[in-house]
Q: What sequence folds into this?
């Protein structure tokens, strides 16, 4: 049974985005108002919702408390999220918060959850930045657990795996959550169903990203909930689509690096590659160049500045 469904708003957004510029000249059809959030419940005690323009947040009622995955892009979205958690779980306390990464569109809403008695799970490499930010804040700092590799979390009546890449992937701070009983994986921006993955974070590393996709495959997940765009009922094909794009992009860029190709040639020749079909031309070029500038001959990338302000999603 397909318990996952697409938010109707997103289909609309996609349809609008797909329209060529000349097709939206006057008279412009009035865009229907998008509700500030939409929530779905694919399984008992498990919800996900789109909050704001494009961010999915999820929560699981584990019996005696709630695990939240990602906290939204803004304070308004986070307030809506908290209210929906309270409504759907009949005011169960939030005991755990996991952040799939620290891009603003995923977790700028976090401070709205403070102060909190919840335990926070992040990629271990993010704990220093978080501790600094808590030290500067006015509220009591929560307990933070930094995950390296993977942990098993028994939360109420649920068993979850929380894992991170060995190094950089989409960002320096990626993390996934796997709910064993429903076989649902929450992947942040490591997989973006039907959409072009964003490679423009200054710490993005394609080799590391491909490696964590291989790990996600081994989980045997069924449903997949990304932070952006629609959840997918079948995880494996979506993971494969992202892997194919990253693998082809990496091979293409290594080849150009060997040729010492100038950037203009890289973006020009990218358009002729099959992988260009998966991403709009401008986004594909942005992805390619931002990796190419940091690419070494062995396919790894020089890290940018993980401490710099968050990059575009
Ligand atoms: Zn992101």
A:
């Amino acid at each position: 049974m397909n318990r996952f469904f697409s938010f109707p708003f997103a289909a609309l957004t996609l349809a609008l985005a797909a329209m060529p510029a000349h097709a939206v000249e006057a008279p412009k059809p009035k865009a229907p108002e998008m509700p500030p959030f939409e929530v779905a419940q694919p399984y008992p005690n498990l919800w996900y919702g789109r909050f704001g323009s494009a961010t999915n947040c999820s929560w699981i009622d584990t019996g005696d408390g709630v695990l939240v995955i990602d906290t939204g892009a803004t304070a308004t979205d986070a307030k809506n999220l908290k209210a929906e958690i309270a409504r759907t779980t009949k005011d169960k306390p939030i005991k755990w918060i996991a952040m799939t990464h620290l891009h603003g569109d995923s977790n700028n809403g976090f401070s709205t959850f403070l102060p909190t008695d919840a335990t926070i799970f992040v990629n271990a490499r993010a704990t220093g930045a978080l501790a600094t930010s808590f030290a500067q804040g006015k509220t009591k700092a929560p307990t933070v657990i930094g995950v390296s590799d993977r942990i098993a979390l028994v939360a109420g009546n649920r068993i979850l795996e929380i894992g991170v890449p060995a190094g950089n992937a989409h960002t320096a701070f990626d993390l996934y959550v796997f709910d064993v009983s429903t076989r649902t994986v929450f992947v942040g921006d490591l997989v973006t169903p039907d959409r072009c993955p964003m490679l423009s974070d200054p710490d993005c590393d394609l080799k590391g990203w491909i490696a964590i996709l291989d790990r996600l495959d081994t989980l045997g997940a069924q449903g997949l909930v990304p932070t952006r765009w629609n959840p997918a009922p079948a995880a494996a094909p979506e993971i494969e689509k992202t892997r194919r794009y990253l693998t082809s992009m990496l091979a293409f860029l290594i080849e150009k690096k060997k040729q010492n190709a100038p950037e203009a040639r890289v973006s020009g020749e990218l358009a002729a590659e099959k992988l260009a079909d998966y991403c709009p031309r401008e986004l594909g070029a942005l992805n390619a160049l931002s990796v190419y500038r940091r690419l070494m001959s062995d396919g790894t990338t020089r890290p940018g500045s993980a401490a710099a302000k968050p990059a575009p999603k």
Q: What stands out?
A: Confidence is low (pLDDT under 50) at residues 8-26, 306-312.
